[in-house]
Structure formats: C-alpha cells, structure tokens
Write a structure and sequence with these properties.
The structure is a homodimer of 296-residue chains. By secondary structure, chain A is α/β, with parallel strands linked by helices. Chain A has nine helices and 14 strands. Chain A folds into two domains: 140 residues, 2-keto-3-deoxy-galactonokinase, substrate binding domain (Nucleotidyltransferase, domain 5); 116 residues, 2-Layer Sandwich (Nucleotidyltransferase, domain 5), CATH 3.30.420.310. A six-stranded mixed sheet of chain A has the order 3-2-1-4-7-6, sandwiched between helices. In chain A, strand 1 and strand 2 form a beta hairpin.
Chain lengths: 296, 296
C-alpha cells in the first residue's frame, strides 16, 4: 500500500465504500463493505470504518451520504436550494479527537418538499469534471433524482421512487410470479411508451403483466422489462418539466443509465452518461481539495 | 349445532372462511382459519377443510376463490367475458369420493388481459340481491376490480393493484418511516384530488411524503391517509371510463368502501355499498340453489 493521504467515503443506507487516496489524487485502493447506515446503531459507525480502512488511519476522512443523516454518525444539516453542491466548508466534523472525519451535508428543497443525501456529491463531481454544464442531471436508482443545474448551482430537484417501486413490485407483489431474470428491450420500450403517452393508465396496466402471464404465457423477462418500462415511463411523464427541451446528464449504474437514455432518446432528448462511483469520487476529491489545497 | 345441509366456503390466498348452512338457507355458524391457498400444498386442502368443518361433514361443500386456481385444490378453468357470473353448472368437482366439494370458476378477459377469482361470486351475490342492477361494480381490496355489469352479465373488467401497492409502500418502502396508524380525512382527499386531476404527477408525489415528514413534520397519520388518497386517485384516473356517468356499487370492507365512496362522491358519482362477506355468501347460496333447488 502506498502513502495514503486521505480517505474518500461513500456511506449510504445499504453500502459503505472507501477509496484510499494518494497525495497525487490517485486512488491507491478501493474497498467496500455491507455496513450501510441502515445496519448500524450510532455507536457502530467508528468500528465499521475501522474494520474497513483501519490500517490506513489516522488520515483525514471525507464522507458523503446517509452517514450524515439524523440517524447517521453525525448530523450534517441540509443546505437549501438554490445552492452550489455543498463543499468542504459546510462539512460537519464528527465529534471526538480519535479520528478526523468530516461529513458533507445533503440538500433540501422546501416547495415541493424534497431531500437528497449523497447525490449532491455526485453532482459536485459532475460539475467539477464538466465545467460550464447547464441543464438537467438525472441520477437513477432506488430513489431517482431529477436536478436542474444552472450556473453551477442546484436550482430545483424532484425525487421519484421508481427503483424502490420496481424492487417491491417485481420481488414482493403478486407480479413476482410472472417475473424472470433477463431483459427484453422491445417490452421495455412498449412499457415506456404506454405510460409516457397515457400516464393516467398506470394503475390499470400493472396487473396485466400477471394476467398476460397466466392467459397468454407472457415470458418472465418480457414481463420484468415491461414493468420497468411502465414505471420509468410514468416517471418521465411526471418529470417532463425537467427534461423537455433540455440536455440531460445521467449519473448512475451503466445498465440503468442505458435504460433511461433509451427512453429519453425516443423523445429527442440529448443525453450523456457518467458512472455514479466516478462522480462520487470526483465530488469528494473536489471537496477535499477545498480544505487541503488543489494539490490534494 | 343445528342440521347442517351444506357448507359455503370462501377460500382465498390468505384466508379460509366457511359458513355452515341450514336447510332453510340460514347460517348456522360461521368459521374461519388462516389456512389460505397460499399456505397450502396440493395435499393440504382436504386436511385444512376437515380441520375447520370436519364435524359437519359429509355434506355438500361449494367453494369459490383461489382454491380453484392452478395452484389450488382442483383447477376450475376461467369462464370468459361477456358472461353471467359462473353458476353451479360450471363448478368443478374435486376428485375423490370421500367428500362432495365443488369449486366455482373465476372469470377471464382476453383483451386487455385480466382475471378474477372469488370476486365473480360476490358479483353473483350482488346481482341476486339487486335484480335489474345495471352499472359498475367496484370491489376494492388487495387487487381492486372494476366491473361493467349489463343485463346480469359481466361485460368487461379491469384490476388495479392499489391495495397491494399501499401495503408495500406504507410498510416496506422508505415511506414507512413517515407513516403512523390512524387516518386523516382531509389528507386523504388532498391525495385523491392531486392524482385524479394530475395523474401524470404520481411518480413525483410519493417521495414528498417522506420529505415533508423530515422537513415539515407532516404527521404520520396524514402521510398514511395521503398515500392512500394518491393511490386511489391514480386508480380512479385510470378507471375513469368505468365510473364516469355510471352508478357504482362498492363491494368491500366497510372502511375501504367508505374511502372510495368519499372520493367518487366528489366526482358526482352515485354510489351504494355492500359488504364483501355478505355478497360472497349470497353468491354461493345462489349457486347452491341452482344445484339443489331454490329451497336450499
């Protein structure tokens, strides 16, 4: 292991990821564990961090994500839109002298009420690596965020629970009996087009997946892809004011980015994609540089 | 116990209900158990029935619900719309000589694909007790059915998974942190009006319940009632062709009927309500009378 200068940490509800960073800004090593915030009591954060990167401590640690929520290690109160993505000057230092851990705050919006924690750091990373970007950033995932960016600031944003809905419906509802692993691009786009053109029909369209499975032998992978399409189409219908006439940057996992890009492209929306992990690291690196100088 | 002439059975995925019926058509005793179809292997049905009503056997048994599905005791193939609710002549006799058990079939629709099992018997009960009814029957529940009835026949129907969505979102999604038991009529109607007037906004409206809980202290019972309202409003938007300009009969649990009636009344839709259990028993009784004569 080279000379670790600091540790970048992405600490969400269900994951803990750490990058051991060198003086040059290069990643020496990436590690992860399942010790997400959701699995930890308040006293469990320090042991979880030590278990993952204890051999590299003590060096400064900069973290983002749910670790800064009220139920996290130390609360980093939300910054309000409109605002630049919170930087290191707004980071909260975890109490105690043993470790030097700072947590970046999330962002809140009053009307309509909305919150993010973690995505703001990915946004910061995207802005840092794409200076001058004006438009919309979409961060698909469990809770997909649509974010209007102007002049380097988060102007407004909305959340759709599409990923969580898909997980619940495909694995825990009656529809699970009609699902199989795999994918079907045609079925996905059928679903997207159905709810994007007639979003009011969503509630009547879901059980059809089960009924077509029973009556018509609809293949499980087609049912799964169409369910995803129906939900993403409904999300796009709700978020139309965000993407209509805009350029959209997707920040997410590669496959999920691809599904959204396929749907948006049919609507004539120019899209680019970036990987969520890359943007998280870029955002943490930019914030770290604010404290310790650009050379970091 | 009086002289049991036959046994009416409502056997769904998660419940088993039985009524011991006298010669006069009166209920001698009602019993129930948790031995729903979902908990049973194929060989488990007879023991489950004997455990509940073995002391009254052998008398004819007439059953409806998921017990007649492919994964049930004996498959009772679907009848196709348009059709009168299946009667005793379409009932399937469970193989074997030990017991005299008949199962009523469900109803299917080819386009759009849809299925029901159990609701057709409630519909038969409603038609039997409300002769001449023309209009729409709504059976709210885990999978709410909207059914167009004309001249005593099921013309068409659609299913909305509203009840299952509510259960999943309120108890298993991130929204569960913002929910509390209880109810708030005003919040419910706000939710209904929001998605009924702008159904395309559903996907963006759900996470607001969580955000308002975090930022504005939205009370848990208001969040729960508004979630229900948002989902029922979205269902009503999807089912508008069913209820617009129609009279609607609700067949369901009393509280749930009340929620739908409150929402439909604001749209000027005349509603009446009946209890699901009463209609199931009336439907089974009507079917039994077809086999054994009106005196049953």
């Amino acid at each position: 292991m080279g000379d670790v200068a600091w540790i970048a940490v992405d600490w969400g509800t269900s994951h803990l990821r750490a990058w051991l960073m060198g003086q040059s800004g290069a990643v020496i090593e990436a590690r992860s564990s399942a010790a997400g915030m959701g699995t930890l009591e308040r006293g469990g954060f320090e042991p979880a961090l030590r278990a993952l990167v204890g051999d590299a401590l003590p060096v400064p640690v900069l973290a983002c994500g749910m670790v800064g929520s009220r139920q996290g290690w130390a609360e980093a109160p939300y910054t309000s839109v409109p605002c630049a993505p919170p930087g290191a000057d707004q980071a909260v230092r975890v109490p105690g002298d043993a470790l030097n851990v700072r947590i970046l705050p999330g962002v809140k919006q009053t009307k309509p009420a909305d919150v993010m924690r973690g995505e703001e750091t990915q946004i910061a990373g995207f802005i840092a690596t794409h200076p001058g970007f004006d438009g919309v950033i979409c961060l698909p995932g469990t809770h997909t965020k649509w974010v209007h960016i102007s002049a380097g600031e988060i102007v407004s944003f909305r959340t759709a629970m599409t990923g969580e809905m898909f997980a619940l419906l495909s694995s825990q509802s009656v529809l699970r009996h009609s699902m199989a692993d795999g994918w079907d691009d045609v079925a996905f786009m059928e679903g997207v087009n159905q709810t994007l053109s007639r979003p009011e029909g969503l509630a009547a369209s879901l059980f059809s997946l089960r009924a077509e499975g029973l009556l018509d032998g609809l293949p499980g992978e087609a049912a799964r892809a169409r369910l995803s399409g129906l939900l993403i189409g409904a999300e796009l219908a709700a978020m139309r004011p965000y993407w209509l006439g805009q350029q959209v940057a997707m920040i997410g996992a590669e496959t999920l980015n691809g599904a959204y890009v396929a749907a948006l492209t049919t609507q004539g929306v120019p899209c680019q994609s970036a990987k969520a992990d890359d943007m998280t690291l870029a955002g943490l690196t930019a914030a770290y540089a604010q404290i310790y100088g650009e050379a970091a």
